[in-house]
Design brief:
Elements (H helix, E strand, L loop, with lengths): L7 H9 L15 H28 L5 H28 L11 H4 L10 H26 L4 H27 L2 H4 L3
Helix pairs in contact: 2-3, 2-5, 3-6, 5-6
């Protein structure tokens, strides 16, 4: 049976090399620059989603708005947590998180929405969640085993995006049918 670990002296010597790279060692198996770029695109997506949910939270009106708005606020807070996780990982990989408002919507996978109709808000948020689910599923598959930490981050975010989509679908199902046909 082959040895599992490199001898400790060799590991320590390797750890001292390129110490300025922090957690990125020669064992890192992905294209670091491309991973940072993909993380920045996801960061833009999460920021746009946060802003969309916040707008919907503040502008939701009508008899059913209170419970729906509460869901929007919860999702906005979770999207912000996703953005924070991605920004932190970008820095760990030696990159710079791109928070530039000038290019935010062009880099984001999801779109911003300014709907004022409650049903349209829910539908647009559900579409955005589905876009994120498809994008992040592809990213997880693309990363593979090359960067297990970034892969786990995307898997955690993906899990929560799926929960958001399920929540939104449930909101649509619970709304009275006459409200759904007005849009």
């Amino acid at each position: 049976m082959a040895e599992f670990l490199t001898d400790l002296k060799t590991l320590r010597d390797r750890a001292r090399q390129e110490i300025d790279k922090g957690p990125v060692t020669e064992a890192y198996g992905a294209d670091r620059e491309r991973v940072v770029q993909v993380c920045n695109e996801a960061l833009a997506t999460e920021i746009v989603c946060t802003l969309r949910y916040k707008r919907h939270f503040y502008t939701a009106t009508g008899i059913h708005a209170e419970s729906v708005a509460a869901e929007f606020l919860e999702h906005a807070q979770e999207e912000q947590q996703h953005a924070d996780m991605l920004a932190e990982r970008i820095v760990q990989l030696g990159g710079e998180p791109d928070f530039s408002p000038d290019t935010l919507t062009t880099r984001a996978h999801a779109e911003y929405d300014a709907s004022l109709d409650l049903v349209e808000m829910i539908k647009e948020d559900l579409v955005a969640e589905r876009v994120a689910i498809m994008s992040y599923t592809e990213i997880v598959q693309w990363i593979g085993d090359g960067d297990p930490t970034t892969k786990r981050i995307f898997e955690r975010i993906l899990e929560q995006e799926e929960e958001h989509a399920d929540d939104l679908r449930g909101l649509l199902e619970r709304l009275p049918s006459d409200l759904k046909t007005q849009t």
